[in-house]
Each structure stands twice: as structure tokens, then as C-alpha cells.
Amino acid sequence: MAFGNQIAMEENLEASLSQIFGGPGKQPAVAVARAEPATAGGPPQAREATLRSLADEAWQHYSRAQDLLRQGNFSGYGEEIKQLEGTLKTLRERAR
């Protein structure tokens, strides 16, 4: 998995997401947001908070999707993955 200039190669997607965006008890690695000037997104702190919020939202969608998959709820799993995709697209756009 890659995000900006960060790459994570873990055993599974969950571990890769955790490595890049942080998971429970971890701070998200948002070095890209700190290193870039705040030209299009307002003050750096606001931009970083937005990116962190989107990363948390993506993590929640992923976690719910995994729970639904374990339960055999493929319809719910598909919906969560669609929402995860939308959140990741927004995250990617705002991180630029």
C-alpha cells in the first residue's frame, strides 16, 4: 500500500493501513501534510486534522467491513468497501 511518499508492505491490508494511517493507539503518519506548505488547504494544523479525520474514517470503514466479512454479510461488506473507497479518494485529493 502507498500513500504519498509512504509505503507499507505488511502481511495484510489491515496492517498496511495501520502502518500508514495509524490504528488504535497509534498516531497516524501524516508527514506529507506537515512537510507541505498550506497553500490550498488552510493552516497546516487544520489540514493535518482533516487528513487525520479522514484516515480515522477510512480505518473505521475498513474495520466494519472486516467484521461484516467475518459474519458472512457480503452485502454489508460491499457497502463498507464502497464507502472506504470514497473516503480514500477524498483523502488522496486533500493530501495533494
Task: Please specify the SSE layout and strand pairing.
Layout: E1 2-3, E2 6-7, H1 13-21, H2 31-35, H3 44-71, H4 74-95
Antiparallel strand pairs: 1-2
Helix pairs in contact: 1-3, 3-4
Question: Structural class, judged by helices and strands?
Answer: mainly alpha
| Gap between N and C termini | 17 Å
Q: What string, H for helix and E for strand, traces the elements in order?
A: EEHHHH
> What value does the Rg take, in angstroms?
14 Å
Q: Taking all residues together, what is the mean pLDDT?
A: 78
Number of helices: 4
Poorly predicted residue ranges? 27-39
Helix content: 55-70%
Globally, the shape reads globular
Number of strands: 2
Query: What is the makeup of the main sheet?
Result: 2 strands, antiparallel
